[in-house]
Amino acid sequence: MDITKIKIFAIIVFTYFNIGIHAQEKPRVVASCSMLSDMCENIVGDLMDVEMIVPIGGDPHIYEPTPSDAQMVSRADIVFINGLTFEGWIGDLIDNAANNIPVVTATEGIQAIQSEKYDNSADPHAWMDFKNGLQYVRNIKDALVALFPQYERELETNHKNYVAEINAADAYIINQIAKIPKEKRVLVTSHDAFEYYGQRYGIQLEALMGISTNSDARTSDIIRVSRIIKEKKIPSIFIESTINPKLIKQIADDTNVTIGGELYADSLGEKDSEAGTYISMLKHNTDVIVQALAYGKTSNTKIDEDQDQNNWLLYGILGLLLIGGLLFMMIRLNSNK
Ligand SMILES: [Zn+2]
Hints:
- This protein is of the alpha/beta class.
- It has helices spanning 3-25, 34-44, 67-75, 90-97, 130-147, 152-177, 195-201, 219-231, 246-255, 278-295, 299-336, and strands spanning 28-31, 49-52, 78-81, 103-105, 114-115, 121-122, 186-191, 204-209, 236-240, 258-263.
- The strands form 4 sheets. It has a 4-stranded parallel β-sheet with strand order 2-1-3-4, with helices on both faces. The protein has a two-stranded antiparallel sheet with strand order 5-6. It has a two-stranded parallel sheet with strand order 7-8.
- The longest helix has 38 residues, at 299-336.
């Protein structure tokens, strides 16, 4: 082995251990759900490791924690929850961890909607309004700065950039909703997760279930929703990513309206999906709602178009590879002559 090789080897070993040690030293942030986890990631950047308890697609209202969740919480430096009874199961999980971890309620300071329809209980879905989202990320940033003052500058910078992105997305939604004729601004979904969204962006909400998902829809709710669809001549109703769509599909069939598409309320979509972040989730919901209520387009047709485009892209790449391969072989054959 010559000197250069030894140097390279030494650099690789050093880098490897350096990364290893560094990764272990990173503070651990645990968030109860995917929306909070994404907010935390935007604020901590590479400074800390962020984990979430309820996985993507899970329903935080009725989640049952696992032993590995308990381990995750017991290893955490700080835990962020939504509060407003969103995660009714979280108290036991944190008590069991029993290591005095700071638990921060991200909705602190937010004016909660008291649901008149459901015994005046506080509606937990405050993140559905970007103005509330700003309060969430301020609470998250403040708690992290208090616990890790050594990272204050980076946390403040990340927070400032994230706030600008949220404000831009908020303006986008206001612009998009304006495209729906006023009388058509009625959103029918599975559960009452869109009140904050409706109040901020000017849409009337009609949901089958209440502000939680822990009970079945009542016949009276099905009748009420079906009547509203007919009375207001609503063209489309919507399913939700974390809730069985059977009942909404049934109502759509019975009232002869389309399913406008899938909305995300209590969980983000997968990382690389159109609703993979907090910001893209609300923008995606808005696009689906506007396409359906303003233009009568369901998002299924859009998905098909995307797939066609993907297919053409695939054929294109395969074609290029084939031509490249042939050229390569011809060059090789020529050079062997
Ligand atoms: Zn919900």
